[in-house]
Structures are given as structure tokens and as C-alpha cells.
Automatic annotation (TrEMBL):
It comes from the Bacteria. SUPFAM superfamilies: YbaK/ProRS associated domain. PANTHER family: PROLYL-TRNA SYNTHETASE ASSOCIATED DOMAIN-CONTAINING PROTEIN 1-RELATED, YBAK DOMAIN-CONTAINING PROTEIN. Residues 23-145 form the YbaK/aminoacyl-tRNA synthetase-associated domain. This is Aminoacyl-tRNA deacylase. It comes from Photobacterium phosphoreum. Transmembrane segments: none annotated. Pfam families: tRNA_edit (PF04073). Belongs to the PRORSD1 family. One of its GO terms (molecular function) is aminoacyl-tRNA deacylase activity. The lineage of its organism: Bacteria, Pseudomonadati, Pseudomonadota, Gammaproteobacteria, Vibrionales.
């Protein structure tokens, strides 16, 4: 995993526009809402989960006001029961910590050990809110820019209805 990645340089080099909002550290969606920042786009909930055996890992990206039904999701993904992965696994696979997880972290995972799952409704928005490898900022990135970034890093994803 390349820990020296600079997400701003990556986005600039790829010509992907973004707006940067600096703010105090937030550790969950509720804290982010309390900041009342004027950011457009889909506010996202980013969940790092694993199957029961711990041999499959998933980064789930969904609109933050949705709730997840782990039983239904495990049926969709055809895996035995799902649970949140530990902070050690989060660091090992995505090089990040709880509260800082975002869609952007998937580009740091180069072994293909984490499956990216995106709720279809995300693509109804013109832009997406993402932490830039830290929970002290939020980037607003056009949805097409996110798709360009994933394509550049050859990161496939599965769209599902959550």
C-alpha cells in the first residue's frame, strides 16, 4: 500500500475538479451534520465490513441517511453473515482509521482484497462528498470525477440497491 499518496495531487493530475472544505475532526455522519457545512452532493456513509470467515472485505458506499440491513446485504453479496471489520483490518487493507474512511481510500488498496460496493442512488447525485484520507476535511467531487478516478486505478465496483 502506497501510504505517501497525496489525494489532491492525484485529483489535480487527473484533471478532476473538487471543492475542499476544512473542518474539525468528525467521526460519524451525525457529527458531520452538526458542522452544517454548505456542501453540495451526496453525503455518504462509508462502511468497511467483512464476511464471517474474514476472507472477504467490502467497502460499502451509500447515501448517509440510509440504513443497512446486513442480512439482506449478505444475501445480495452471497456471503455468510457480515459484520464491521476491526480497526486493525481497516488499517491493513485501506490504510485508514475509523471516522476517516471514504470512497477515496479504495485507491490505496492495490491487492484487490477489498470489494467496492456502491449504492445505485449515489449516481443520482451530480457530486459526492468524500474525506481526503483524513476526517478534518471533506471534498466535493463530481460523480463523473469519481468514476474517472476508479477507472484510472482500475477499481471495479458493484452497484446495488440498498
Amino acid at each position: 500500500m502506497e501510504l505517501s499518496m497525496n489525494i489532491y495531487k492525484i485529483l489535480d493530475d487527473l484533471g478532476i475538479s473538487y471543492k475542499n472544505f476544512q473542518h474539525p475532526a468528525v467521526f460519524n455522519c451525525e457529527q458531520a451534520h452538526l458542522l452544517a457545512l454548505d456542501i453540495d452532493g451526496a453525503a455518504t456513509k462509508n462502511l468497511f465490513i467483512k464476511n464471517k470467515k474474514g476472507n472477504r472485505h467490502f467497502l460499502i458506499i451509500m447515501v448517509d441517511d440510509k440504513t443497512i440491513d446486513f442480512k439482506r446485504l449478505s444475501q445480495i453479496l452471497d456471503v455468510s453473515s457480515l459484520s464491521f471489520a476491526s480497526s486493525n483490518r481497516l488499517d491493513k487493507y485501506l490504510g485508514t482509521s475509523a471516522g476517516s474512511v471514504s470512497l477515496l481510500d479504495i485507491i490505496k488498496e492495490t491487492q484487490g482484497a477489498v470489494e467496492l460496493i456502491i449504492d445505485k442512488s449515489i449516481f443520482n447525485y451530480s457530486s459526492i462528498q468524500c474525506h481526503p484520507f483524513t476526517n478534518t476535511a471533506t471534498l466535493e467531487i463530481p460523480t463523473m470525477g469519481i468514476q474517472q478516478l476508479l477507472e484510472h486505478y482500475q477499481r471495479p465496483y458493484t452497484e446495488i440497491e440498498l
